[in-house]
Amino acid sequence: MIVVLEHYERYSYAEKQLKVPDSHVNAQTNWSVEYSRLKAKIELLERNQRHYLGEDLESISIKELQNLEQQLDTSLKHIRSRKNQLMHESLNHLQRKEKEILEENSMLAKQIRERESILRTHQNQSEQQNRSHHVAPQPQPQLNPYMASSPFLNMGGMYQGEYPTAVRRNRLDLTLEPIYNCNLGYFAA
């Protein structure tokens, strides 16, 4: 219905312009015709808007109501289609984001496992080094009471706190080189 009115107004306006020569008086009538055409269009649009909102339906015939209902159904289908399209795009975006997050999560978990493995390896190595350098503690022997009170009274023998079975390690190299190389005969080993 709107389309029919618009076609009619366009053609009637175009016909009027062709019939009347262009002059100052015609320009003023053209403006008044344009004004009346725009005013009619605005009234039609306002009336249709009220009909779409469900207002002022008493003056509409049954055929116009059916046409309005069909237009509303078509509009609703377009609205739902667009809404579904947007929801589908949003869902795809969220699924891609979820996949990226899961990949990042698995990468971080792998890095954590690698670092934990390196840390365990370092701990095992340090524990093995500590075990090889550390002799298991043995019970301390009963020392002379005088030696326990003063470390300066220990003249030779064991140092204070030394275990009797512990081998004393000396950092000095006390090997003697022979000054003379002599043949000892059968005494040499």
UniProtKB/TrEMBL annotation:
- The K-box domain extends over 28-118
Coiled-coil regions in this chain?
Answer: 65-114
Q: Which InterPro entries does this entry report, sorted A to Z?
A: MADS-box/MEF2_TF, TF_Kbox
Keywords (alphabetical) are: Coiled coil
| Pfam families attached to this UniProt entry | K-box
Q: Where is this region: Disordered?
A: 121-145
State if 4Fe-4S is listed as a keyword.
Answer: no
Query: Where does the secretion signal sit in this chain?
Result: none
The name this protein carries in UniProt is K-box domain-containing protein
The top of its lineage is: Eukaryota, Viridiplantae, Streptophyta, Embryophyta, Tracheophyta
